[in-house]
Amino acid sequence: MLIQRKKYLDMLISGAGNGLIKIITGMRRSGKSFLLFKIFYNYLKEKGIEENHIIKLALDDLRSKSLRNPENLLSYIDSQIKNDGKTHYVIIDEVQLADSFVEVLLSLMHNPQLDVYVSGSNSKFLSKDVVTEFRGRGDEIRVWPLSFAEFYSAVGGDKIEAWNEYYTYGGLPQILQFDSEEKKINYLKNLYELTYLKDVLERNRLRNPEGLAKVVQVLASSIGSTVNPRRISNTFKSSGYNSVTDKTIQFYIDCLQDAFLIEEALRYDVKGRKYIGTESKYYFADMGLRASVLNFRQQEEPHIMENIIYNELKMRGYSVDVGLVENWSKNEAGKSFRQKLEVDFVVNRGAERIYIQSAFKLPNEEKKSQEERPFWAIRDNFKKIIIVGDTIKPKTDEWGIQTISLLDFLLNDKIL
Questions:
Q1: Is residue 130 very low, low, confident or very high in pLDDT (cuts 50, 70, 90)?
Q2: Which position has the higher pLDDT, 128 or 28?
Q3: Strand 114-120 with 88-93, pairing
Q4: Bigger pLDDT: 300 or 130?
């Protein structure tokens, strides 16, 4: 099943010939190779680019092992270049497997005939040192698992049924190939245990697979809640894992982020305009993998909905934080007290800011007021939106607070 990932293809097309290295990142099995070797390759062919002007290399293929040597890789690419003045498109998958890959890419930039596209599966590919080397010379494109809109474009049918399928099994493209619940569950479990977990252990030379797996389970159980390494460490101690310190747990979390398996949302003081570094929320890049970690238990739709909204916002290019608003209230005795209210998402992109609440259901005015209360305490004019799981038409109340349905939000990337 061919899903034309138009958003990412458009990014590749807009960057063609700009003199920068196009760097495609994202978790394994999210579709990076397919994007480059199938979708983008087909686009180039349709535009009339000759086959011998497209140089494709997959460095995770054992047959390309010798090309992981930087001199061999450069020599091979040089040997494929025709001296005809035409642009040659160099497409390298899993380029971080090449030794000294930064120097290789910088060397390729010296040839004006080359337009270079590379992929990598871990964020060390974009570590601080690499970012410094490529500042002004690299163009990152982050590829996510299928959005719900992409998923629905492939499966069609009833939107609610598609949503149920999506939040249960996630959006890794290959999940669409399986026709039964059993096959999907087995695929996700094997992928998590034999690919992702093993990959993180081996890449970071971790010697406590049980401890790492336990951290992933805690994070999977905690989506929608703030956590920190010390609190997780205390949970471990109560379960007999005394040897896992908070520093070790933080390192495990960094490794999971490094593999693009989880994302961190920092807490942000809206009124004080500063970050609060004590606790964070962590969201999974794919809900099917999250479900497999928990053996497909704890399928709380409200928390999953919040996670998917977070992912969708990130896919659309926003930075996303968890907001805190300090407010003064009065108790029944009329005594004032200070109250901290949470805004699910403080969303920024350039000069644009949006405050968003995720509410699975709004059964009555009391629940609606509860969701709106943090908005009332924010004294600015940026857009304020509640996304609800109910099927409703978009509306705006007298406070200027908009309410939209989850499916409208997911299927219309212009709705914000």
A1: confident
A2: 28
A3: parallel
A4: 300
- pLDDT: is 366 or 115 the higher one? 115
Is residue 9 classed exposed, middle or buried when 0-12, 13-18 and 19+ CB atoms within 10 A define those classes?
A: middle
pLDDT(129) > 70:
no
Amino acid (1-letter code) at residue 281:
K
Query: φ and ψ at 347, to 5 degrees?
Result: -115, 125
Name residue 80's amino acid: Q
Q: Sign of torsion, CA 363 366 370 372? A: positive
C-alpha triplet 121, 122, 126: angle, nearest 5°: 115
CA distance 145 to 167: 12
Q: How would CATH label the architecture of 6-142?
A: 3-Layer(aba) Sandwich (3.40)
Rounded to 10°, the helix 246-258/229-238 angle is 120
Beta-carbon contacts of 347 under 8 Å, excluding residues fewer than 6 positions away, are 313, 318, 319, 320, 353, 354, 355, 356, 416
Q: If you ran DSSP here, which 8-state letter would residue 59 be given?
A: T
274-284/262-269 β-pairing:
antiparallel
How many Å apart are CA 391 and CA 98, to the nearest integer?
Answer: 50
pLDDT tens per residue across span 185-202:
999 999 999 999 999 999
Reading the block at residue 79, the tokens are 């040997």
- pLDDT score recorded for residue 1: 67
Give residue 128's pLDDT.
65
Identify the helix (H) or strand (E) that includes residue 258: helix 246-258
What single-letter DSSP state applies at residue 292?
Answer: H
Strand 336-349 relative to strand 319-330, pairing? antiparallel
Cβ contacts of residue 195 below 8 Å, gap of 6+? 28, 29
Give the torsion through C-alpha atoms of 393, 397, 400, 403, to 10 deg. Answer: -30
Answer for the pair 381, 351: CB distance below 8 angstroms, yes or no: no
Domain ranges of the chain: 6-142, 147-416
The first and second tokens of residue 411, run together, are 């299927």
Give the CA distances from residue 163 to residues 166, 332, 388, in Å, rounded to whole numbers and listed in that order.
Answer: 5, 43, 14
